[in-house]
Write a structure and sequence with these properties.
- The structure is a single chain.
- Strand 1 and strand 2 form a beta hairpin.
- The chain has one domain.
- It starts with a strand and ends with a helix.
- The mean pLDDT is 89.
- Helices cover 48% and strands 13% of the residues.
- It is globular, with a radius of gyration of 18 Å.
- With 219 residues, it is of the alpha+beta class.
């Protein structure tokens, strides 16, 4: 998997990022907020002796440093390409960062966020809340179908999906705390809050979200 994000800001600056399915290696001197024990997630299974730095924080670091002083609501042109197709959109920096950070988090090597890695392989940039719910539920149900094919007990009631997103909420909250002190602007913070609210919708209001989708799909 190779995904490129290309930002063109209104002042003419261009900033590029490449994301693969391989975790970013922690090299050189990294800021204190990336250390594992700094605002470590309450459900983090990692130990400092094995992983001195938070994998998700290391993956997010280049994005945080590039945009930490930027206004979240400024308009940017963003083009995204993978091995199959390309996308381009005029949008707010906040929406673009939400999309990029979500992808980086899922492919960071974090044991909890890695539950989203298989979705990241089929990354959809700039996904709306409805699209996020549709993709999350569809992907989870496909996993249950394959579980049944391998003689495992499938979870058609989506209980595991709700539990998964509750785990992800804890990670999102801790990551927000990590970068809060270093962001001079509000772009990264708003992007994380937006991503967090979308993940929350799967666990807090999944049934109401499904009813909305049902009315659209069944007519």
């Amino acid at each position: 998997m190779k995904v490129g994000y290309h930002f063109k800001l209104q002042d003419g600056r261009k900033i590029d990022f490449k994301v693969t399915d391989q975790p970013v290696e922690a090299t050189g001197t990294l800021p204190a907020w990336t250390r594992l024990e700094h605002c470590q997630c309450s459900n983090c299974p990692l130990k400092t002796s094995e992983s001195p730095h938070c994998p998700a924080a290391v993956a997010m670091l280049p994005v945080v440093e590039a945009f930490q002083a930027e206004d979240a609501y400024q308009q940017v042109e963003v083009s995204v390409e993978d091995d199959r197709r390309g996308y381009i959109k005029q949008t707010t920096l906040e929406e673009a960062l939400r999309s990029l950070l979500g992808l980086k988090m899922a492919t960071s090597g974090c044991p909890v966020l890695s539950e989203l890695k298989s979705m990241a392989v089929h990354h959809l940039p700039f996904a709306s809340s409805d699209e996020f719910i549709m993709r999350s539920v569809s992907h989870y149900l496909l996993q249950q179908y394959f579980a049944k094919r391998h003689d495992l007990e499938p979870d058609w009631e989506l209980k595991g999906l709700v539990e998964r997103n509750q785990r992800l909420q804890l990670v999102n909250q801790a990551l927000w705390q990590r970068i809060h002190a270093v962001c001079q602007g509000d772009s990264n913070l708003k992007a994380l809050l937006n991503f967090f609210s979308m993940a929350s919708s799967v666990s807090v209001s999944l049934e109401s979200q499904l009813r909305k989708l049902e009315s659209r799909i069944t007519g």
